[in-house]
Amino acid sequence: MNATALGPQVITKENLLKHWQGHRALTRRVIEAFPEKDFFEFSIGGMRTFAQLTSELLAIGAPAMKGIVNRDVKPYAEKLDIGTTKADYLSKWDEATEEINTYWNMLDVADFSQRFNLFGQYEFPIIDNIFYFIDNEIHHRGQGYVYLRALNIQPPFFWEREL
Protein backbone atom coordinates (compact mmCIF):
# COMPACT_ATOMS: atom_id res chain seq x y z
CA MET A 1 0.00 0.00 0.00
CA ASN A 2 1.40 3.39 -0.98
CA ALA A 3 1.33 6.35 1.40
CA THR A 4 -0.33 9.45 0.02
CA ALA A 5 -1.07 12.97 1.16
CA LEU A 6 -4.81 12.32 0.69
CA GLY A 7 -5.49 10.90 4.16
CA PRO A 8 -5.37 12.59 7.55
CA GLN A 9 -2.07 14.32 8.15
CA VAL A 10 0.08 12.80 10.89
CA ILE A 11 3.24 14.77 10.17
CA THR A 12 3.70 18.18 8.62
CA LYS A 13 5.84 18.79 5.57
CA GLU A 14 8.24 20.76 7.78
CA ASN A 15 8.49 17.96 10.35
CA LEU A 16 9.14 15.37 7.65
CA LEU A 17 12.04 17.46 6.36
CA LYS A 18 13.33 17.87 9.93
CA HIS A 19 13.12 14.09 10.36
CA TRP A 20 15.04 13.47 7.12
CA GLN A 21 17.63 16.12 7.89
CA GLY A 22 18.06 14.64 11.36
CA HIS A 23 18.99 11.36 9.70
CA ARG A 24 21.35 13.22 7.37
CA ALA A 25 23.01 14.92 10.35
CA LEU A 26 23.55 11.53 11.97
CA THR A 27 24.95 10.04 8.76
CA ARG A 28 27.32 13.01 8.55
CA ARG A 29 28.59 12.17 12.04
CA VAL A 30 29.11 8.55 10.94
CA ILE A 31 31.21 9.79 8.00
CA GLU A 32 33.22 11.96 10.42
CA ALA A 33 33.85 8.97 12.72
CA PHE A 34 35.72 7.02 10.04
CA PRO A 35 39.50 7.26 9.85
CA GLU A 36 40.41 8.70 6.45
CA LYS A 37 41.97 5.51 5.06
CA ASP A 38 39.18 3.25 6.32
CA PHE A 39 36.46 5.49 4.88
CA PHE A 40 37.80 4.66 1.42
CA GLU A 41 39.17 1.14 1.91
CA PHE A 42 37.48 -0.78 4.73
CA SER A 43 34.71 -3.25 3.97
CA ILE A 44 33.41 -6.55 5.26
CA GLY A 45 32.35 -9.55 3.23
CA GLY A 46 32.72 -7.83 -0.12
CA MET A 47 30.33 -4.99 0.74
CA ARG A 48 31.09 -1.54 -0.61
CA THR A 49 33.23 0.88 1.38
CA PHE A 50 31.47 3.62 3.31
CA ALA A 51 32.79 6.14 0.78
CA GLN A 52 31.02 4.17 -1.96
CA LEU A 53 27.83 4.00 0.09
CA THR A 54 28.06 7.74 0.75
CA SER A 55 28.49 8.30 -2.99
CA GLU A 56 25.21 6.47 -3.54
CA LEU A 57 23.43 8.62 -0.96
CA LEU A 58 24.82 11.77 -2.57
CA ALA A 59 23.63 10.55 -5.98
CA ILE A 60 20.09 10.11 -4.67
CA GLY A 61 18.99 12.83 -2.22
CA ALA A 62 19.57 16.20 -3.85
CA PRO A 63 19.46 15.03 -7.50
CA ALA A 64 16.20 13.20 -6.86
CA MET A 65 14.62 16.19 -5.11
CA LYS A 66 15.64 18.40 -8.04
CA GLY A 67 14.10 15.91 -10.46
CA ILE A 68 10.90 15.70 -8.44
CA VAL A 69 10.47 19.47 -8.20
CA ASN A 70 11.23 20.01 -11.89
CA ARG A 71 9.37 16.81 -12.92
CA ASP A 72 12.53 15.94 -14.84
CA VAL A 73 13.23 12.23 -15.04
CA LYS A 74 16.96 11.65 -15.34
CA PRO A 75 18.74 8.32 -15.03
CA TYR A 76 20.46 7.42 -11.79
CA ALA A 77 24.13 8.46 -11.95
CA GLU A 78 26.22 7.28 -8.99
CA LYS A 79 29.50 8.39 -10.57
CA LEU A 80 29.73 11.90 -9.15
CA ASP A 81 32.82 14.07 -8.90
CA ILE A 82 32.99 14.14 -5.11
CA GLY A 83 36.71 14.38 -4.54
CA THR A 84 39.35 12.21 -2.96
CA THR A 85 39.26 13.07 0.74
CA LYS A 86 36.76 12.60 3.52
CA ALA A 87 36.64 16.40 3.80
CA ASP A 88 35.55 16.54 0.13
CA TYR A 89 32.73 14.13 0.89
CA LEU A 90 31.64 16.11 3.93
CA SER A 91 31.63 19.30 1.87
CA LYS A 92 29.48 17.65 -0.81
CA TRP A 93 27.23 16.28 1.92
CA ASP A 94 26.67 19.80 3.26
CA GLU A 95 26.01 21.15 -0.24
CA ALA A 96 23.48 18.38 -0.86
CA THR A 97 21.77 19.14 2.45
CA GLU A 98 21.25 22.76 1.38
CA GLU A 99 20.02 21.66 -2.06
CA ILE A 100 17.50 19.32 -0.44
CA ASN A 101 16.25 22.19 1.72
CA THR A 102 15.95 24.45 -1.32
CA TYR A 103 14.01 21.95 -3.43
CA TRP A 104 11.91 20.84 -0.47
CA ASN A 105 10.65 24.40 -0.06
CA MET A 106 9.46 24.29 -3.68
CA LEU A 107 7.21 21.28 -3.02
CA ASP A 108 3.60 21.67 -2.09
CA VAL A 109 1.95 19.12 0.20
CA ALA A 110 -0.38 18.26 -2.69
CA ASP A 111 2.69 17.15 -4.69
CA PHE A 112 3.29 14.27 -2.30
CA SER A 113 0.44 12.21 -3.75
CA GLN A 114 1.56 12.81 -7.35
CA ARG A 115 3.32 9.94 -9.05
CA PHE A 116 6.91 10.44 -10.17
CA ASN A 117 9.16 8.10 -12.09
CA LEU A 118 12.32 8.35 -9.97
CA PHE A 119 15.42 7.98 -12.14
CA GLY A 120 13.22 6.45 -14.85
CA GLN A 121 12.99 3.28 -12.76
CA TYR A 122 10.50 3.60 -9.92
CA GLU A 123 7.12 5.23 -10.43
CA PHE A 124 5.51 5.83 -7.07
CA PRO A 125 3.86 8.73 -5.28
CA ILE A 126 6.45 11.36 -4.39
CA ILE A 127 5.95 10.70 -0.67
CA ASP A 128 6.98 7.07 -1.21
CA ASN A 129 10.09 8.20 -3.05
CA ILE A 130 10.98 10.42 -0.10
CA PHE A 131 10.47 7.51 2.30
CA TYR A 132 12.79 5.49 0.06
CA PHE A 133 15.51 8.17 0.36
CA ILE A 134 15.26 8.07 4.16
CA ASP A 135 15.04 4.26 4.40
CA ASN A 136 17.97 3.77 2.02
CA GLU A 137 20.11 6.15 4.06
CA ILE A 138 19.25 4.37 7.31
CA HIS A 139 20.11 1.03 5.69
CA HIS A 140 23.52 2.20 4.49
CA ARG A 141 24.26 4.03 7.73
CA GLY A 142 23.66 0.69 9.48
CA GLN A 143 26.42 -0.79 7.33
CA GLY A 144 28.64 2.09 8.45
CA TYR A 145 27.85 1.25 12.08
CA VAL A 146 28.98 -2.34 11.51
CA TYR A 147 32.19 -1.11 9.90
CA LEU A 148 32.91 1.30 12.74
CA ARG A 149 32.32 -1.39 15.36
CA ALA A 150 34.59 -3.78 13.43
CA LEU A 151 37.23 -1.03 13.55
CA ASN A 152 36.69 -0.71 17.34
CA ILE A 153 35.22 2.77 16.93
CA GLN A 154 32.11 3.73 18.88
CA PRO A 155 29.55 5.01 16.36
CA PRO A 156 27.29 7.94 17.20
CA PHE A 157 24.15 7.00 19.10
CA PHE A 158 21.46 6.29 16.51
CA TRP A 159 18.84 8.30 18.37
CA GLU A 160 20.89 11.51 18.38
CA ARG A 161 19.65 13.03 15.17
CA GLU A 162 19.57 16.70 16.08
CA LEU A 163 20.66 19.03 13.32
From TrEMBL:
Key word Ribosomal protein present: no
Top-rank taxon, per record: Bacteria
Organism placement in taxonomy: Bacteria, Pseudomonadati, Bacteroidota, Flavobacteriia, Flavobacteriales
UniProt KW keywords: Metal-binding
GO molecular function: metal ion binding
The protein's name: Putative damage-inducible protein DinB
UniProt similarity note: Belongs to the DinB family.
Positions with a binding annotation for a divalent metal cation: 140
Coiled coil residues, start to end: none
